[in-house]
Amino acid sequence: MTTTLLSALVRPLLEPQLPDWVAPRWFLSKEEALALAPEAAIGWVDLNDKEAMAEIVTAATSLKWLNSIYAGLDFLPLDLLAERGVTVTNGAGINAITIAEYTVMLMLTHAKGYAQVVRAQDRREWLLDSPGKRELAGERVLLLGLGAIGGLIKTRLEAFGMEVVPVRRSPAPGALGPDAWRVELGSFDWVILAVPATPETRHLIGANELSAMKPSAVLVNIARGEVVDQDALLSALKERRIDGALLDVTTPEPLPPDDPLWTAPGAQITMHLSGRAQTKMIQRSAARFLDNLERWHRGEPVEPRFDLTAGY
């Protein structure tokens, strides 16, 4: 029997289908999880409290495989997990569809001035002209990050007639290399960030990159807040050096009510809701976990494997 630490919140989805070699230990609180953690060989210990998750993982000294619904796991003790030889699977791709749809929504909302339309309806004012006249068709998109989310964003935007140019580590037709995209920044109408949060991607977009963008360009960040130098972005927006910033993520989160980014010209902030705009995340995650349990038992690789060294 393999002791497996699991949140009681997913018990209805997992318990009827758990294989007989799994000995589940269900928890409802951080305290219960900490008490059970040392004996667990497998763990799925997701909580809204990231610090509590890190404590539980640290306490799980017998852990062999850690599963998570989260794609980004930079809040966990990755060095410790690597030292212990723990296999980690994450939630990469679980929310890819809804995040890709959300990205398109953000872009259309900005292009058509839809926020002003909604406010006009609140005032019961009949507008005689559209506050936004931008068309997506024919515009160029620089896509930083071509994983599960980025791939779906690309196909959806291409369906609108946009030219999407991804950045890739290895040479590929129609793509830019990791050292080439900055030189080309001024030729793009939209810059979309869909990269993981790693030391290498921190402040990937800073003052220099923002200065290189065209005045009509729009930055879209559905990655992590720290991928953008937020002070530099605020200055660029205030000085109208770019047309807008569509931010599903910020630093910190939640963004304080008095943060000037809320009212910066061209800023649209959507409170990290893109991955939550669906109802199937837990079901998809449970199905993936059950499939991985069978793989684990057969000695096959579990998926998607999180690279503890690379951080994604």
Quick overview of this protein structure:
The chain is of the alpha/beta class and 312 residues long. 33% of the residues lie in helices and 15% in strands.
What does this structure look like?
The structure is a single chain. The chain is elongated. It has eleven helices and eleven strands. The protein is an alpha/beta fold and 312 residues long. The two termini are 31 Å apart. The protein has two domains: 2-94 and 279-298, Rossmann fold; 96-276, Rossmann fold (3-Layer(aba) Sandwich). Helix 5 (96-111) packs across helix 7 (148-159). The longest helix has 18 residues, at 281-298. The protein has helices at 11-14, 30-36, 50-59, 78-84, 96-111, 114-122, 148-159, 181-184, 207-212, 230-238, 281-298; strands at residues 2-7, 22-27, 42-44, 65-67, 87-89, 140-144, 163-167, 190-193, 218-221, 244-247, 267-269.
The DSSP helix count reads 11
**CATH uppermost class of the largest domain:** Alpha Beta
Global morphology: elongated
**Number of structural units classed as domains:** 2
The count of DSSP E runs of length 2 or more, i.e. the number of strands, is: 11
- Ends: how far apart? 31 Å
Question: Which runs of at least 5 residues are low in confidence (pLDDT < 50)?
Answer: none
What is the strand arrangement across the widest sheet?
A: 7-6-8-9-10-11
CATH topology of the largest domain: Rossmann fold
Main sheet record:
6 strands, parallel
Strand content: 5-15%
Q: Identify the CATH architecture of the largest domain.
A: 3-Layer(aba) Sandwich
| Rg (C-alpha, Å) | 22 Å
Instruction: Give the CATH H-level superfamily of the largest domain.
Output: NAD(P)-binding Rossmann-like Domain
- Average predicted local confidence, pLDDT: 97
Order of helices and strands: EHEHEHEHEHHEHEHEHEHEEH
